[in-house]
Each structure stands twice: as structure tokens, then as C-alpha cells.
Amino acid sequence: MTRVTDLPADLQARIGGADLVVFDGVCVLCSGFFRFMLRQDRHGRFRFATAQSEIGQALYAALDLPREDFETNLVIVEERIHQRLDAFAAAMRALGGLVGPLSWLALLPVGVKDGAYHAIARNRYRLFGRRATCLLPEAALRGRFLPGGW
Q1: Rounded to a whole number, what is the distance in angstroms from the first to the last CA of the chain?
Q2: Neighbours of 122 (CB within 10 A)
Q3: pTM of this prediction?
Q4: Residue 94 class from Cβ within 10 Å (0-12 exposed, 13-18 middle, 19+ buried)?
Q5: 22 three-state secondary structure
Q6: pLDDT, tens only, 10-61
């Protein structure tokens, strides 16, 4: 499943056509990606949700992905669902500007991309740390999250 239109109708409606980043809210590296996206997304294109949230869990279930030990972040751009390093590349391409050239990572061979991504994902808590609780956005940022996204 690579398109939002492949999701159940109620989930499509909840996403509402938004470009979206779904990230592990207890992972320090993943939360860092969220903060990076906030800084770079000066036009507010992206909405956010943690993987642990109600909508994050529904997305992972619909995509038949693990819902506890998250093996990937998700990025939805223009109704296409991206995973792993392709998700990062799609987000960079959508942001453009100085980070846009990082989208070239999508051109790497699948084995290289997935191998590198999985090596980091498997060790992310050990290498970067883990929060005791899921990230809760400050009131000023809650509008950037989908309803039920934290």
C-alpha cells in the first residue's frame, strides 16, 4: 500500500489530504527528525502524529506494520505513503531549499537504503536514547498535529 486512497475510508478522512510525518515519540532520534522538520517547514506544509498516538497506531495497523517496536517512520506527501529512507527523501524533496538535495537518497539501491535504515532503526534507542514517555507537543505546536496525533 503506497497511496492514501488504499487506506480505509475513515482513516483517509482523518488524514484529510494533509502531508504528514508520523514518528516514534519516545525515540530521541525520531523526535529530533520532528524538530528538524518543524524548523525547515517554514510554510507549515506538514502535519504531525506520533506513532504511539491513536491515528499513528491506526496507520501502522492499516499498513500491516509493527505497532510497538516501530521499524519505520512514515511520511505522506501528495497522497503517497513513504517508509524508511524513502520517507526522509520525500520529506526533503517536499521541503526543497537547502535540504532538497538530500532527496537524492531515494536513488540509492533498495538493499543499500533499507540495510542502512534498518541498522540505525534497530540501534536507535541504544545510540541516541529513549524518552520515558511519549513526546507531548507544547500548546503552540498542537495545531500542527492531526487530531488524535499525540
Answers
A1: 24
A2: 12
A3: 0.90
A4: buried
A5: strand
A6: 999 999 999 999 999 989 999 899 999 999 998 999 999 999 999 999 999 9
CA atoms within 13 A on the CB side of 145: 24
CA 1 to chain centre: 16
Kindly state the DSSP code that residue 87 receives in the 8-state scheme: H
C-alpha cell at 92: 526533503
Provide DSSP, 38-80. HHH-TT--EEEEETTSHHHHHHHHHTT--SSS----EEEETTE
Give the span between the Cα atoms of 68 and 40, in whole angstroms.
28
C-alpha cell at 146: 492531526
Say if CB 74 and CB 59 are below 8 A apart.
yes
Q: Which amino acid is at 87?
A: A
CB atoms within 10 A of CB 35: 11
As a whole number of angstroms, the distance between CA 99 and CA 136 comes to: 26
Residues 103-146 pLDDT 10s: 989 999 999 999 999 899 888 888 888 887 777 778 888 889 99
Q: For 87-111, what is each residue's pLDDT tens digit?
A: 999 999 999 999 989 998 999 999 9
With beta carbons less than 8 A apart as the criterion, state whether 8 and 34 touch: no
How many whole angstroms separate alpha carbon 133 and alpha carbon 101?
34
